[in-house]
Every structure is written in C-alpha cells, then in structure tokens.
Design brief:
The protein has about 850 residues and is of the alpha/beta class. Helix content is about 45%, strand content about 10%. It has 35 helices and 21 strands. An 8-stranded mixed sheet has the order 8-9-7-10-6-11-12-13, with helices on both faces. A hairpin with a 6-residue loop joins strand 4 (about 65) and strand 5. The radius of gyration is 36 Å and the shape is elongated. The two termini are about 50 Å apart. This is ParA family protein.
C-alpha cells in the first residue's frame, strides 16, 4: 500500500514523468480528480490508458485512480491545451523536487567567492565546533590578510548566535532578514552593497595566539521573536525568484561586497529545506560532520546519496569528518563506517583521479573536554592543541593557495627537460645499483646502525631484507672498499680510520649480477696482496657456489653443515687451514682481521631441485646460527661475517623461533620506510640537479622536510595545489608499497626512471615542478610490470600463486574480489597476505597497486581510493 492521499498520487506522477506521452502538457492533481492537459491533435486514448496503467498498475481502473487506503476515487479528466500550457519542470535545490533531474539549470558557472557549508544529519556531533575550529585556524594562520563572512543559518536551533548572544543583541541585520530581502527584492549588486553596509558593523572576535582577529558575522536573528514566526523561508525565496540558486549566489555576492575571501555557513541539521539550497549546489564546498552512532552514519549516508543522485559533481569538493571516535573502537569498525560514508563521494571520482581518502574523509577522536562548552570565547580557548584543530589546520593551509601570486622563479622548459634527462639516466644506472659500476651510496638508517655498532669491532651479523631492498647493493659497496675501515669512513665522514686493517673477503655472491664478479675479484686480489704468503684464486667464490650446489643435490646430514661452512671459510685463505681456530691464530700473527661476505643464498635455493630444498634450509640455518656462534667464541676474535639474506626465506628456514632470531638483528634489517624511500628519491634527484640537495642534510632530514623539498620534483599535489588530487609524496609512497607498508629501493628508483621518461614524452604543463602528474600516473603500470617480473624470477612460490590471478578471465578481473572468484587455498591466501600482496576487508579481497597493473586488474567504481588509503597508512 502506498496511495494514502492525493499527494501520493501526485508523487507517483512526478516520479514516472518519463512514462508520460509526449502529448501531455501538464498534470494537476486535486483531492478527487486528476486533470491532464493534452495536445488534442496528437493525443490518443490508447496512449493515455497505457501510461496510467504503467504508473498506477492495479490502482488504475477505467477512467479513474482508486486510493488504496480509503478506496476514494479520483476521476481522470482530460482538457485540451496549447503549447504554452506545457509545464516544463524547473530544477530547484530543494529536497521536495526529488524527481526533477538536471532540467533547466539556472545557476551561474562560479560563485563570486567560495562558500563552505557545514552540515550534519543530527545535532551534537561537532558541526558548529568544526566551523569555529576552521575559522580559528584561518584567523591564526593568515591573521588580517584573509577575511571571513561567518553565517549562522541554523534557523531552528541556532548555535553560533546563542554563543554570541550578548554581542549580537544589537545586530544590524540577521540571516532571517536576508531571506526576507531575497523574497521581496530583485537580486543585484546594489542590494548586496546595501546589505554589506549594515554587515560591516556586525563582527565577532576570534582570539588567536598572537592577535584578536575580527571576522564578519551574520546571526540567525536580531531578536528572538524572528524565530517564532518565519515567513520568508528558503522555499518561498526559491519559488518566487527565477534564479533557483539565488540564496547561495547572493550570500557569495555579499561576501564579495564585503571583500571577504571565504564564506563559512553553519547549516540546520537533518533533511530540511533550510539546508537544501547549499547541499544541492555543486559550487558550494560541503563539510559533513558525523559521529560513529548508527543514526548519524545512516542519516549522513542518506544525505550524501541524495546529493550524488541529484547533483552532478555535487560531492566533488565535499569532505566528511568522522567525529567522537571512541578510543577503544577497533580499526576495522572505523573502516567499515568510513566505507559507508565514502561510498557516494567515491562514485564521483574519475578512475584517473589520484586521490586518497584522507583528502576527503577525516577522523577526529573522542575528546571529553569538547562535550560541554560555554560561550564563543571559551570554545576558542579550549580548541587550542586539540585533534580537531590539527585537522582544520591542515585544511586551512590549502584553502587560499590558489590565490597566492605565482612564483616568479618558475622553471624554464629547457631546465625541466635537462633535469628530467639527467634524472632518467641517474635512475637507470641505479635501478639495479648492485649490478652496475657505480660507486655512489646512500647511507640508510640500517647501514648507519651497522657502522655505529661496529665502528671499533668486527661485525658478525645477519642483514635481513626483502627482495630489492638493497642487500647486494651494500655487498657491492663493501667489496669495492676492500676493507671494513674504508667502508666505515664512507658511511661516517667524521670517523677516524683505525690503524688495524680489517680485510673484506667475499665468501659467496649472487650469480645474477653483471658487475659483481669484477669487483669481487678486485677485493680478493687486494686481500691476497696484503697477506702476501697466501694464494687466493680469483674464481674461489664461484667454486664455493658450485660446491654448495653439488652438496645440496647429493644431500648432507644437518649436523655436517657447520663443518662444511667452516672448511669453506678456512680454505678461502690458501694457507692449508683446516678450521677457523687456525685461521684466527694466523690472522693474530699478521695483526689483521677479516670479514667474510655472504650473498646469493636465494640463488642456491632456485638452482637446486625441490627435493634438495630441505637440505638448503639446514645449510642456511647452520650458517646463520651455528657458524656465527663459533666466530663469536674464537680466541682472538679476528673473523667476522656479514650474511645478507632474504627475510622471507630465513623465516621459512628458522621456523617458529624466527621472531627471537630476527630481534637480534632488527636494527640492521633493510626496511624502506616511507621516510627512507623519500630520502632515496631526494638523493637520486640531487644527483640529477644539485638544487635538490641545496641547504638540506638529506641523511638527517625529517619526513616533513623531505616532502617539502620533493615538492620541487613532483609537486605538492598530483595536480594544482588547490585540486582534489592527493598529496604527491603520500600517493607515490602508497602506490609503490605493499599492504604491510613495505616498499623497496628498486621500486623507488624504477619509478623515478619511468616517471621522468613519461614526463618528457608528454606536455610539460607545470612550471613549478619537474615530474608531471600524467608522467607519474603512467609510470606506475611500468613499475608494476617490473615488480612482477622480479617476483617471477626471485620468488617462484609467490609467482605461482599470483599467476592464477594473471590467468583469470578478463571479465572477472575487477577489484575487490569475492572468495568465489578466487581459486586459491587458504594457505596460498595466507602466504599472499603475509607478503603484503593481498588484503582482506569485509570478506572482499584487494591487491596492492604495485602488482595490480601487471596482473591486469581494474576497480569497481569508487574502490580505488580505499585501496590507496590502505597502502598509504
């Protein structure tokens, strides 16, 4: 049952307007009849009957509609009309016109000055507080350089007006007065200027840390009686004016007349026509405030959905603040709430928009000090140092940037091209820095920790790292320096070189890197020359590798591996040593120390048959545990070792005690945190253009300082500074990371290479940066292909699982996936999760960007920002 009154009949006719015959001019509905004005020349009875049956189904009978509730009959009457009788729906920004879609638009292209409207579905969630906080941050940041017009438009439950009650007792004009003026006057510049003359006397004072700043303020009422008898409401104003967007446009005109830079409006809560003109104007920036309560979430979601359905790009500039988040609320619960709030906004995002949820979905935790507040002055005082203020400060920083004068020192096209050419060349040489002849080195935190801890002693450690994290890169630098002391001085420019020489001796190296062999030979030759009475063969390292492969294929008892490794190390120095004790004593006589280098253990794994892989685990376990313990217990302590090993392989080898093992060496683990990744990007950029390294200590700078300097490379945002696009640094780090938050040096360097090349190939439209947003976007698929190729070559077990995704039918390659679309075992899913190549949320499965492109997956509408935000956390 849905036809209770004549009004429900009218709604059905409006809802189904597309079913009207073309000959119908208009329809008027009364209590007991429906009058249809028709073009008699083109109207037929059959089309009338057909349309009414489709609209009312069983409620339509021969010539009348019967209401279901009281069985009342409404006769259908046809009257002849002319073309001028035709009723063309006019779209208005009101909830009541729910069935009018994009017809006869009356609004202008832009507002004279921007409007930000604050709305909430229910009261008490921090809407007015959020507006005050933003106004305070703007006042503190820009002082008297930016003027605000603050409007209290909550006509049923004023907040700002009551907070300022005493100050507004003699207000010259109110918002209700303004609605009356719009109701009975033509809207023009003269009216705006006359109102502005009154408004210049109406101010509120915001106390910042330095100054008291005056801002224009329009209260709801001059006297409380105005609220009790509101004649000129928003509906009447809109009905009488030809321009249906008169309210927002006139308030913006008023702000312009006052020479204000921004209008802030506090709206009425809920689904109400008092707020509708602001909500349904796509030019108005809308800030929706919601607590975590079900009522607030569902109501806000409903408002967002309605705006999305009715107003093209109506949410393009919207932000949602999730407030009053209890400290005990789990992250997954918060994410579920955010999913609901973000759904409508993300439907409007173009697939190419490089945005993160943090651009439009902000969190504010519960703060008991903001629950019971007093007057305006007290609120401004309490806000200092609160999380809400931090959020609003971030918004305030970018509000007016588009109006700032352009930098006089914009980059020339010639300079941009030259830097991009050099950046591409430098990045290409560093893509596999361990595999080229470059001697450049960035001293990351891990390297500096090793040097700091072993500046005066020899290292006996395991350096763990994911593939591409730079293990072979450091191995190469060590071998190139030939002594530990020279390596220490390379990393620590202030270190004093020790008088005792510690020789670097490669024991095992990767077989897949081109330049390593020559460097290893030079290192071995140096050790042989220093020790003089030994004869170290150039090909000893390769002989070691071949011998280990042979032993692994034959099969060796686990207990034997300790002796094998000792024999291998002792025989590296061709002096007929049978064990490490003898070698230790020999080095004591020579007043020398040595540090063995081990890399390429994963090569052994891939070069042996499956049946020998258990033996490989025994070999690695013995080297990383037993051999290091033996070295630590030698009498003279002249032998050290640095073992570079893939973290995932060592974890598989050590088993359940891996955490304890890892903790011993956690300080040296090669982890590329976002800060380290940005450090690497700036270091490479500085080799292409010295300006990037000017007046900044790249090795010691904070993440904020690195991001600020890198704005010269890739801009503050992936678009104009005032765009909806994501902050460049966070977006780039996000798309290059996996779901564990890890990214690899190789991916950063590769990104810079591809982004530089793609920027050179496209239009250099941005003169404040070198890499263009389109170049950055085009680089990611290439990075993904490179990543997947490495997984295929270096992580065969993971590759076999991911290959199943690559082989899926194209129509099923849409994210997120559901379990029925995935032909993986529970163990395979767990393995991908542990490696960061899959995330599961709400029983939906996601892939990180760094492999999504290579596997050929696209997104369902609106899914991408969620994934990017997960990656960027």
């Amino acid at each position: 049952m849905h036809l209770f009154t004549w009004y429900d009949v009218e709604l059905d006719l409006k809802r189904n307007r597309e079913l009207w015959p073309k000959s119908w001019n208009r329809v008027d509905v009364y209590n007991n009849e429906i009058v249809i004005n028709v073009d008699a020349k083109n109207n037929t009875e059959s089309e009338n009957e057909s349309a009414l049956k489709k609209i009312f189904a069983n409620c339509y009978h021969d010539g009348y509609v019967q209401r279901e509730f009281d069985k009342s009959r409404m006769d259908v009457i046809y009257e002849e009309g002319e073309e001028e009788d035709r009723m063309i729906p006019v779209r208005t920004p009101l909830f009541r016109d729910i069935y009018v879609r994009n017809e006869n638009e009356t609004k202008s292209a832009q507002l004279p000055i921007p409007i930000i409207a604050f709305h909430s579905y229910k009261g008490g969630v921090g809407r007015t507080l959020s507006l005050i906080s933003l106004a305070k941050e703007i006042s503190g940041m820009y002082e008297d350089k930016k003027r605000l017009l603050i409007i209290d438009a909550d006509v049923e439950a004023p907040g700002l007006t009551w907070m300022l009650d005493k100050e507004q007792e003699n207000a010259p004009i109110s918002y209700l007065d303004l609605l009356s003026l719009m109701h009975f006057h033509d809207i023009n510049d003269e009216l705006a200027e006359n109102v502005a003359k009154l408004m210049r006397k109406s101010n509120l004072v915001i106390e910042t840390e330095r100054l008291e700043i005056e801002q224009y303020f329009l209260p709801v009422y001059r006297k409380k009686e105005q609220m009790m008898n509101i004649f000129s409401n928003t509906e009447r104003v809109i009905d009488i004016q030809d321009n249906k967007y008169v309210i927002t446009e006139f308030l913006s005109m008023l702000g312009s007349a006052l020479k204000a830079d921004l209008v802030l409006v506090d709206l009425r809560a809920g689904i109400t026509e008092f707020s509708a003109p602001f909500l349904f104007d796509s030019r108005v920036q809308k800030y929706f405030i919601s607590s975590t309560s079900l009522q607030s979430i569902k109501g806000t979601q409903q408002v967002l959905e309605e705006i999305h359905e009715r107003e093209a790009l109506g949410l393009q500039k919207a932000r949602v603040l999730l407030t009053m988040i209890p400290p005990e609320m789990e992250e997954q619960t918060i994410q579920r709430l955010e999913d609901r709030l973000a759904e409508s906004i993300e439907k409007e995002l173009d697939a190419d928009v490089m945005s993160l949820r943090e651009n439009y979905l902000l969190r504010v935790g519960f703060d008991s000090s903001l629950i019971s507040l007093g007057n305006f002055e007290e609120i401004c005082s309490v806000l200092r140092g609160r999380k809400l203020s931090d959020v609003m400060r971030g918004i305030a920083e970018n509000l007016f940037e588009q109006e700032e004068p352009e930098d006089s020192s914009e980059l020339s096209i010639q300079e941009i091209k030259g830097t991009l050419d050099r950046l591409s060349a430098v990045a290409e040489s560093e893509i596999t820095a361990e595999g080229n002849s470059s001697s450049n080195m960035l001293s990351t935190t891990s390297i500096r920790e090793i040097v700091k801890d072993y500046k005066d002693t020899i290292p006996q450690i395991v350096v763990l790292g994911a593939k591409g994290s730079g293990k072979t890169y450091i191995y190469k630098q060590l071998a190139e320096k030939k002594t530990w002391e020279d390596f220490v001085c390379l990393v620590d420019k202030h270190a004093e070189k020790s008088s005792q020489e510690t020789l670097i001796v490669p024991l095992l190296s990767t077989v897949s890197v081109r330049y390593i062999n020559k460097i290893v030979q030079g290192c071995i030759q140096y050790t042989s020359d220093v020790l003089k009475d030994t004869d170290m063969g150039f090909h000893t390292v390769h002989e070691n590798y071949d011998m280990l492969v042979e032993l692994l294929q034959k099969g060796v008892q686990p207990a034997e591996w300790g002796k094998i490794w000792q024999r291998l190390m002792a025989q590296m120095i061709k002096g007929n040593f049978t064990n490490l004790e003898e070698l230790d004593g020999y080095l004591e006589e020579k007043k020398k120390k040595i540090v063995f280098l081990v890399d390429g253990l994963e090569d052994l794994y891939t070069d042996i048959q499956d049946k020998a892989q258990e033996s490989w685990k025994d070999a690695v376990r013995s080297l990383c545990r037993n051999v290091i313990n033996i070295l630590r217990n030698l009498k003279f302590g002249n032998i050290g070792i640095i073992i570079f090993a893939r973290k995932d392989m060592v974890e598989e080898t050590i088993g359940m005690n891996f955490e304890q093992f890892k903790n011993q060496y956690s300080r040296y683990e090669l982890k590329w945190t976002p800060t380290e990744a940005l450090r690497l990007a700036l270091w490479i950029a500085s080799q292409a253009n010295a300006a990037f390294g000017k007046n900044i200590d790249i090795l010691k700078s904070t993440r904020e300082a690195l991001e600020e300097r890198l704005e010269l490379l890739w801009g503050k945002k992936l678009g104009n500074r005032d765009s909806r696009e994501a902050v460049s640094s966070r977006w780039i780090i996000g798309v290059l990371s996996d779901f564990t938050g890890q990214l690899q040096a190789r991916d950063i360097v590769r990104f810079l290479k591809f982004a530089a090349d793609a920027s050179l190939e496209g239009k250099l439209n941005y003169r404040d940066r070198y890499l263009t947003p389109s170049g950055i976007r085009k680089a990611i698929p290439e990075c993904s292909k490179g990543k997947f190729k490495e997984i295929k070559e270096e992580m065969k077990t993971i590759y076999k699982i991911l290959k199943k995704f690559e082989d899926m039918d194209e129509e099923n390659k849409r994210l997120p996936l559901t379990l029925d679309k995935i032909s993986l075992t529970g163990e395979e899913i767990a393995r991908l999760e542990s490696q960061g190549y899959m995330a599961i949320l709400e029983k939906k499965y996601y892939l990180p960007e760094i492999i999504r492109f290579a596997l050929g997956f696209t997104y369902e509408k609106g899914a991408r920002p969620k994934v990017l935000s997960l990656l960027a956390k």
